[in-house]
Amino acid sequence: MNLRAIGAIYAFELARTRRTLVQSIVAPVLSTSLYFVVFGAAIGTRITEIEGVSYGAFIVPGLVMLTLLTQSVTNASFGIYFPRFTGTIYEILSAPVSAFEIVVGYVGAAATKSIILGLIILATAALFVPLRIAHPAWMLAFLVLTAVTFSLFGFVLGLWADGFEQLQFVPLLIITPLTFLGGTFYSVSVLPPLWQTVTLFNPVVYLVSGFRWSFYEIADVRVGVSLAMTGLFLLACLAAVWWVFKTGYRLKT
Amino acid sequence: MSSIISIRGLSKTYAGGLRALGRIDLEIRRGEIFALLGPNGAGKTTLINIICGIVTPSQGTVTVDGHDIVKHYRATRALIGLVPQELTTNAFENVWATVSFTRGLFGRPADPALIEKVLRELSLWDRRDSMIMTLSGGMKRRVLIAKALAHEPKVLFLDEPTAGVDVELRQGMWQAVRELRDSGVTIILTTHYIEEAELMADRIGVISKGEIILVEEKAELMRKLGKKELTLQLAEPLGAIPPQLAAYRLTLAAGGRELVYTYDAQAGRGGIAGLLRDLGAAGIACRDLHTTQSSLEDIFVDLVHEKP
Lengths: 253, 308
Fold this sequence. Notes:
The structure holds 2 protein chains of 2 kinds. Chain A contains 11 helices and no strands. Chain A is an all-alpha fold. By secondary structure, chain B is α/β, with parallel strands linked by helices. Chain B has 2 domains: about 5-220, Rossmann fold (3-Layer(aba) Sandwich), CATH 3.40.50; about 225-305, Alpha-Beta Plaits (2-Layer Sandwich), CATH 3.30.70. Chain B starts with a strand and ends with a helix. The interface of A and B includes residues 83 and 253 of A.
């Protein structure tokens, strides 16, 4: 195992985050905090509680999940796409590193950044809404699992993408709508039965539901199902990454 | 001298059907400077990229220091440093960080003293904190060389290393390359500046249309394939070459005032002595004479054009 290579890639990616602190950390924290201000402190007081939880507090797990998903995908996809775009990928491909080590370096860095962001957003939320965490260990487990899974997904996206537009396409036009329609701002149980069924095809529902359960012990689907679905998606992403490195797709000619 | 790189039956056909390499067999000797020459699209970069692990071969095997590049890729890649043809750099990184990154990527422990030595040797020390995007093309090229040297490779590939580099800097780079060779590093270079290959290389390989058409010691190549020309300035102009001199390959130039004799370098001076005797017997007097020898560039052009 080339641990130094993993460390070099990991440190390189985190250094990129440090160089772009405003764009990487401040902007997502600020934009998510606006939701807490508007829905928590301003409008939230006029919306009825959901299963005993104030509306402002209810939306926190979903909003953290929104940031976690979009940032994980964006960080990881950009991390591997940029060297492909500039040509510096030659260095990674000609180094004595395995596919596994490359993935650990890039995905580990992207997931780390997302987790840090998620925790900062949680701390910020606590300033605006009454936040409680019933199961901190499960909360962290969901946070890490989701960040790793979607960073892997982002890594695959970064390998597949042929341009910056494709990189933006998935987070903006797929992840964000799925998160908004995945129970971030409402409980799935308030939907008509038909839409409840349709919603269950949205994978983000399971992430938000499981994550919210770790806070307030309320969930749209059973927490075991949430875990299983997240694990399933993780396996799918791992399989895609394995296939990419086995075939050299978009990496080697 | 033992081989450090052995290439056996190597071929590459890209997915689109482009056959970049035929069946290549080549041995690179330990500690030599090997110049790989060939026209654009001949397969030089494909060959280098296969050895370095960037391109997957279609057939054949390559070993580096006895290790197969596929089965033992960690061992072979750790031995190799690559300076690519394109100026591919991390524009937003600084020089120190990007060179240190490469050392870590190749599994070597941090060694600030070594990085400092490399940067000083390549005249980059004063710019170590500069973002790469602020550097000139020549400096970026040197950053790529510094990165390739950061993990102390035993084999260094220089793919067109002096493209876009000014003359003074180029000479400095070649001096650094010679010192590397003297320290035991094997160097494989491709260049469009054939005079550089002539100046630097121990051996020359010529690749054309994906096949190695010649591998030879540089001096031997020059001896075998180099042509010499003897130009004689005549005391009196000649209207035609006399029949008794027909055995020689002679042409008239400068309106009959010069007689040009073309001969192979291998022929040595025996041919000249005979010609001068025969000229004297024919009553042709000379005022002056000089010889020229074909350059590696002439040889290269002849070789590549000869290949069907």
